[in-house]
Amino acid sequence: MSASGAFLEVTDLHAGYGDARVLHGVDLAVGRGEICAILGPNGAGKTTLLRALSGMVRVRGGVRLDGMDLTRRPPDALARQGVAHVPEGRGTFMPLTVEENLRLGAFTRSGRRRGRAAVEADLERVCAYFPVLRARMRQAAGSLSGGEQQMLAIGRALMLRPRLLLLDEPSLGLAPMVTEELFRIVRTINEEERTTVVVVEQNAHLALGVAGQAHVLESGRIVLSGPAERIRADEQVARSYLGYRI
């Protein structure tokens, strides 16, 4: 545990692409087992923040998980520490079957957790959350609907048995009913497994309904932080930063 008591602690984080700086000194802390929503307009740096947390972009500053310094470690090292990233656009391997995609999620596990019995048990666990995947095991991922592909992407991340789950725009391109079901499942996973979740989401109203806390990014800087319920109920905040009216 870090000195602040946070499970995930981000300190003065700067990140970007080449000479283009996107994040400018981001500070945030997320408690163990919490759901944290990252909100803000397009181009605010939300996706870059998740990429920074999963080692996909170069950073300056500090990232600590359960007291361990993960700054500037590569993605495979972060995966072995239990960081699972579901990117925008899902990132499934379309020619592979659903089962093959799920098994790939266990690839970075080590020791007994990578054994056959453990992997089979986790396949059952994932199918309990997403029953539709059980019926699609032999199908190519590319043949699934958008909602099913998103379920597969999250299921593959769960095969890692993550301590920290990063979700980037899980509702993108999905029908409202599918989105609501997806968020219900994410909340169930959080409650049952105490997995810490950081979710970037354009549907601010829905994200704030499942999150315990929220941070609003604007131009690469956090401009607002607080309990999700308070941010959700503030009409001025909703109009100014989140793009909806209460």
UniProtKB/TrEMBL annotation:
Would the keyword ATP-binding turn up in this protein's UniProt record?
A: yes
Tell me the superkingdom of the source. Answer: Bacteria
Q: Which InterPro entries match?
A: AAA+_ATPase (IPR003593), ABC_transporter-like_ATP-bd (IPR003439), ABC_transporter-like_CS (IPR017871), BCAA_Transport_ATP-bd_LivF (IPR052156), P-loop_NTPase (IPR027417)
The record, for SUPFAM superfamilies, names:
P-loop containing nucleoside triphosphate hydrolases
ABC transporter domain spans which residues? 8-244
User: Which Gene Ontology terms cover its molecular function?
Assistant: ATP binding
Indicate whether Electron transport appears among the record's keywords.
Answer: no
Q: Which Pfam families match?
A: ABC_tran
Keyword terms: Amino-acid transport, ATP-binding, Nucleotide-binding, Transport
**Sequence similarity:** Belongs to the ABC transporter superfamily.
UniProt protein name: ABC transporter ATP-binding protein
